[in-house]
Amino acid sequence: MAMSTPLTQQAVSPVYLLVGGLVAVLLYLFIQSKRAGLDHIPGPWLAKYTNAWRGFQAWRLNHHNEAVNNYQINMIGRYGDVVRIGPKHVLVYDPEAIDTIFGFRERLDKASTLPGPQGPGYQVFVMTGTDQTALVSIKDEKTHGIYRRPIAHAYSLSSLKGYEPYIDETIEKLIKELDKHDADGTPINMTRWLQYWAFDVMSKISFGEPLGFLDHGYDFNGMIQAQRENFRYISVANNFPLLDTLTKRNPLLKWVTKKPSMFFTFARRVVSERLAQASSKDPQDAEFEAQSRRHQDLLGSFIAARKAYPLMTDLRITHLTATNVLAGANNSARAMDATIHWLVEHPEAQERLHAEIRSVNMAAMKQTDTEGPAALELALKMPYLDAVIHESYRQFGAPANNLERVAGPSGLTLPNGGVHLPPGTVVAMNAASMAMLPHIFGKDARAFNPERWLQQPGESEEEFHNRKIRMHRSMLVFGHGSRSCIGKNIVQLELYKIWATLLRIYKFEPAQVKLHQVMTIPRRREQKTEKSVEI
Q1: What's the pTM?
Q2: Backbone angles phi, psi at 116, to 5 degrees
Q3: Residues 72-96: tens digit of each pLDDT
Q4: Cα gap 149→180, rounded to integer Å
Q5: How many domains in the chain?
């Protein structure tokens, strides 16, 4: 008969298993933290051991309306310009380090803890239900160049002229809505309507047809709300990639997440229709070729690129056009919301912009102030408008997510102090925080003040030039270097045209003004024909 022992007579207590597992996890986190070789970098204690600290901070910023730049600027005061925010993650606040991290000389790859092309937090940009990744999530420079090359021309300055008619059409729709409120004197929620405009114009430029928000006057299919929730999720998962791995990318939960998004479904339908049209035509037909060249939306350019670039598959084209709307509409809507909020609170700025717009129009030999959308070539000649748009970028156009790179095999030495980061360190900058540095943007850096982009009284040309260069270099709204945002020119085209048009036609009177909920009463201005006035 076998002898029994106390150990075999009763099962191991679940408490012991739990404690043992917890000790093993803590030991693993401690070892990983030490192996990173970043003990010389100050930062929050918990961040040394887990990315959950970063994820929690992102969640807190989402749910408590605390500006990300205020929160991170406070970290600078506590820890300095180089802060450890994760076991292998370091956040840098020094503008002198921008070229070191994002420059062309030593092109650092985006960080990666995953197999394949996507980076760590960047995996969240892979569209659910597909294996397609956005340009932003491609980790290495070579692969990024291969994927960017077929589409770069479609986003170039030379292509902008072809997109103006699409923007003009959507501006005219918005004008009709504003005229209704001018006629009956009722307030309009400009935050929402500018968001509807941003989605429709990006869809028009991308697909040749709008999503329909301006026609319906509300989020009729839930796309905007879904996108808002998606960006909140991205802000957390980008900082805590394990969350994405355990949820959206979890093979066990694919039955929950396998359904493509509404954006992808819409894009797939439009792309399929256009591809069917293209395949029914003879490519050698001169008339068809000329027609294709005249089709100036992004989808037309992507389809045309298939002949020279086999990687431009149907699925790739669908993904590109869908993510173009997702990425482009959100940032431009935020920047426009900041602008209208500030303009309604500062009627004197509206008057100054109106005078500048009229002056430029008259100087361009226009006999009357037309009510049609402004031409880009004229909008770009307005220095105060340029200052207002740059300030709106600075305040609310920057993404809250960190821009990450990974230190190469020899590590990375930062300027101004020579802090050395070991190989494999994920080094990052935050565009929203960099745009709030007082020693770059002034003591009032947290305030919306377009005057900072103009020459100050008593400031020499050289001083102004150097100050403006420093500000521009510290603006990472569209990224920096070879990985800068490919859609930057299109976003600028939209913003310059819409404000040069609306502020010529309307004066926006306050009704209920708070950020992200700006209610105004648009009043049509009398369209005068007198000659230009000095500003």
Answers
A1: 0.86
A2: 85, -170
A3: 677 888 899 999 999 999 999 999 9
A4: 45
A5: 1
